[in-house]
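Quick one before lunch.
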Amino acid sequence: MREIKIRDLIKRKSGSYSIRGWIYRLRIVGGKAFVLIRDSTGVIQAVIDKQKFPDDRWSSIENAYIEASIMVKGSLRVDERAPNGVEIDVEDFNLVNSLEQFKITEYQSPELLLDLRHLWIRSRRLTDIMIIRSHVFRYAREFLDRRGFYEITPPIITTIGGETGANLFELDYFGRKAYLTESSQLYAEAMIFSLEKVYSFAPSFRAEKSRTIKHLAEFWHLEPEIAYYDNNKNMKLQERLVSYIAQSLVKNDEEILKELNVDVEGLKKVKPPFKRLSYDEAIIKLQEKGSPIRWGDDFGVNEERLLTEDEEKPIFVYNWPESIKAFYMPINPKDPRTVLCADMLAPKGHGEIIGGSERIWRYDELLERMRKKGLDPNRYQWYLDLRKYGSVPHAGFGMGIERVIKWLLNLDHIRDAIPFPRVINRVEP
Ligand code: 4AD
Ligand code: MG
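Model of the magnesium ion complex:
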């Protein structure tokens, strides 16, 4: 008898098969057990007839708990009343584990479901999201690999911050102070001098004190870095990457997207080019829309929403004020108050999904900027070295995968885009 996945099984009409899964629903009606069984690919109904089994085996299934693991063998039969139009007449079954009643019952608070995340992760909705997440990782890598990028593996433990350094998690490294990385960019930069086009796909850590719907303390960060790239090429690569992910989902994952109530037609429109607004233009637009924002301010949730509420695709806001951006971004020669960078904002207020820029590639300029920003150059010796031996202009960006998933699937909260979310008040399970 052939072992088969439920997705393949429900396409057939007859034959004998064996499946392995978990009990999703169980109803006992008139000497028959109607067992909905799920595996990673779908759900099917299996019918166990009391007549066919000794009393002790019947009572084991009669008393089985939801979520019990089960193997069944039986023959497939077309039945219009069954959920997928077919069901299995069970010839043999094996209840693998059914020790206690499942901890999650029908109505539970979101907080409790987060406490029970290790169990709730099996819900249909989270299963669907985790499949999409796995595919988003795959498509992103596919896109970059096909363009000749090398994937690199940066260290997670570091001694310097890559961004503001204000939100670093500190740890005791054999008596020395070290930190969980907030970005792998600086290491990606080190590797372009041999590999030219690289990306790292790794967790970044931010000890953000804010409790918001889009901040995680641990998130997965895709960070490409490319030799001889400028801000323009950087934006082009980003819009192609994001569009590739969206179009691959549309092409391969439509069924799951629909189950998750995603606006697939909307996703189809995510194609280059994306709108580009300079920071100056964005400020004018925001003020026209009634925001009290002034030139030099960073955007808050409200500004991000005002700018993107009517958009169907992400937009870029480029060349931000020097004072609110990281130390490594070069001055814009056309307006020295600003730097050569761009953020990509997702539509409908989902917020910033990518931050990218050119990098200062000249030694003196970098040293001067670090001093201006109050950073101690001694701690950045190795990073400064990169500007001494064959430095070249370069650029790169960082994309927060959970932010992207939150936008693509229109999730209410970023925590559902990652299996075990780490936020300010939660580090378990
Ligand atoms: O804008 P950020 O801070 O930029 C960097 O870290 C650069 N070093 C990246 C680079 O150029 N290589 O972060 C980049 C992206 C943001 O646009 C956002 O999508 C995501 O990382 N991100 C977060 N995602 C979830 N939770 C958080 N707390 C995040 N902080 C940033
Ligand atoms: Mg940013």
